[in-house]
Design a protein that fits this description.
Radius of gyration: 21 Å
Shape: globular
Largest sheet: 2 strands, antiparallel
Oligomer: single chain
Number of helices: 17
Bound molecules: heme C
Strand content: under 5%
Helix content: 40-55%
């Protein structure tokens, strides 16, 4: 992927960047462009996504009896046009002033609405003559700048695992702030699932996994044991924060029970590493976002796979 991008595409990117940045001053909120807008450069990721339940659900979810019962309970008719459903179930793209569901949860559901960050995230900088650089020529400082600028523009950068995990939970933990407690209560009464078993490793390492990193960008790499242990802990760190905040917000007994189950699972995971990583103990005592981020930062270069041990889910349970 990296070395195959022709120069003219990068030049187009730059022109795009200038246009988008000037539009951004007017628009402020980044727009969702849809998964097709990523295909040109991320063909392999697109193919993985197309085979996942995220992509497939757009064909079926609104037709199920369960969906119909939930819609009736909240007094709405079409799932693809009801904000209380589309915020989690669909990728909504605006064209010619009309917003439509173009896909199920897709690239930008996990990586952020891309109109502003898209031209920034793949721009490796320029040489003294103003020619675009290739990836190998980019220095560490520029990469750090590019990552930060993308994040500032709304990108959920894959290596920022606390942000990645919190974002999954806004849907999978039913913690999206735009969903009112009243609507949520009615949805749960009508049978909307609240799956307290969501866990990052188990839910990402199966069908959704895409890890085409250098040096071999054609291989969908498995994680090494230390990487996986860190991913697991980042997931639980995000989970204890989201579940603790959510508990106080919605009184529905099913909701409270599910969030409590998440907190218990996260406690087990954090207790397993607290002797080797003191930040885990601090997070257990005070499950704040700042403490969770401090923990994720503290384990970044550590091998905690020994302490996490067999808490990691078995491969045959991956979704
Ligand atoms: C013009 C080509 C191009 C388009 C279009 C494009 N990307 Fe990228 N993307 C790249 C390149 C090149 C990189 C590698 C950047 C690097 O080396 O860090 C990248 C990296 C990424 C990364 C990972 C960063 C990392 O290294 O961990 C994500 C996530 C990503 N793109 C998502 C998307 C999504 C989502 C879309 C569609 C909305 C998209 N990209 C559209 C070229 C593109
Ligand atoms: C806050 C995010 C969120 C909102 C809002 C939301 N859902 Fe869901 N929904 C999910 C998630 C996540 C799942 C998958 C749960 C699981 O099984 O892990 C799901 C599952 C479902 C299922 C079961 C799908 C299946 O294959 O069994 C139906 C039906 C459904 N939702 C309908 C709705 C309807 C109708 C609305 C709008 C009133 C809605 N949802 C709003 C997140 C949400
Ligand atoms: C379910 C959430 C989710 C969806 C949907 C998703 N991603 Fe990702 N993506 C991730 C996570 C998590 C990582 C980090 C993987 C890692 O480093 O282990 C990632 C990593 C990446 C990377 C860097 C690794 C690689 O494969 O080169 C790119 C590029 C990327 N995603 C692009 C995309 C594109 C394009 C789409 C849509 C076709 C997409 N993603 C859909 C969650 C998602
Ligand atoms: C924008 C909301 C949203 C985000 C963000 C999101 N998901 Fe989902 N996910 C859903 C919905 C909705 C479903 C249910 C689709 C259906 O069955 O109709 C689902 C289903 C899944 C499934 C299939 C579950 C099964 O039982 O087959 C997996 C696996 C999954 N998500 C993993 C993830 C992971 C991992 C992340 C974060 C890296 C993530 N999702 C982020 C909304 C989301």
């Amino acid at each position: 992927m990296h070395t195959l991008v022709p120069r003219w595409i990068l030049s187009l990117c730059l022109i795009g960047l200038l246009t988008v940045v000037s539009q951004a001053r007017v628009l402020a909120e980044p727009a969702v462009l849809g998964p097709e807008s990523c295909r040109k450069c991320h063909k392999l990721e697109l193919e993985i996504w197309e085979a996942s339940n995220h992509a497939k659900s757009v064909e079926s979810v609104h037709k199920t009896d369960k969906a119909k019962a939930i819609m009736k309970a909240i007094g709405e008719k079409r799932m693809t046009k009801t904000a209380a459903c589309t915020m989690c179930h669909f990728t909504m793209v605006e064209t010619d002033g009309k917003t439509k569901a173009v896909a199920g949860p897709s690239c930008e559901s996990c990586h952020g609405a891309s109109s502003i960050w898209k031209p920034i995230h793949s721009d490796y900088g320029h040489d003294a003559n103003g020619n675009p650089l290739k990836q190998v020529a980019e220095n560490a400082a520029h990469r750090a700048e590019r990552t930060e600028a993308s994040a500032q523009a709304g990108m959920v950068w894959p290596q920022r695992t606390f942000d990645v995990a919190s974002n999954c939970l806004s849907c999978h933990g039913l913690t999206n702030d735009s969903l009112s407690a009243d609507t949520l209560g009615k949805m749960l009464e009508a049978g909307h699932p609240i799956n307290s078993e969501f866990e990052l490793v188990r839910f990402f390492m199966g069908k959704p996994r895409h890890r085409f990193y250098p040096p071999d960008t054609n291989v969908n790499a498995e994680m090494t044991p230390p990487q996986m242990a860190r991913f697991f802990i980042a997931g639980h760190a995000a989970s204890i924060v989201a579940a603790t905040q959510a508990q106080g917000k919605v009184a529905h007994p099913k909701y409270r029970a599910a969030q409590q189950a998440r907190i218990s699972a996260a406690k087990t995971a954090l207790e397993a590493i607290q002797d080797s990583v003191s930040e885990a103990g601090t997070l257990l005592q005070d499950p704040s976002e700042a403490n969770a981020r401090a923990l994720v930062a503290a384990i970044q270069d550590k091998d905690i796979s020994g302490a996490v041990g067999d808490l990691l889910p078995a491969k045959n349970t991956y979704k």
